[in-house]
Amino acid sequence: MERGLRAASAAIVCATTIGLSATQTAPQNPGQASTARKYVVIGCISREERSTPSRGNAAPAGPTFTVTDTRGDSPATYRLGGDAEQLGLHVGHTVEISGPITTPPGARGGGNAGPAVPTLTVQSLTYISTTCPKK
User: Fold this and answer.
1) Residue 68 φ then ψ, to 5°
2) Staple partner for 116: which of 22, 89, 107, 122, CB 3.0–4.6 Å?
3) pLDDT digits (tens, 9 = 90+) for 79-116
4) Contact assessment for residue 125 and residue 88, using Cβ atoms and an 8 Å cutoff
């Protein structure tokens, strides 16, 4: 009886160990892991028309879309990277956007609207409201 109980206990421990190792999602080689972190921004989308030509092009540049997140102590503004047609549908709407944020070289922290505004690459967009909150 005791021998059967030990065998059953050993089988449970073995099955648990195999199950745990199968559920691990961390890569075996950390050098290949993606370093891009996903951020979530909730805010209002706006469009900025640029009338100056972009680098190397004689044609006027297309619109730039930004999202302003007012949840913190000071508002943070991010330039949006993504499908301009889809982003244009949500101008003036409150949305939740997630994706990686890239900061241009020489940019200092904060969400100002200067030339060094961080870019949020849109990986997912969730519609929240047809309006933006008034301050």
Assistant:
1) -115, 120
2) 107
3) 999 999 999 999 999 999 999 999 887 655 544 445 58
4) no
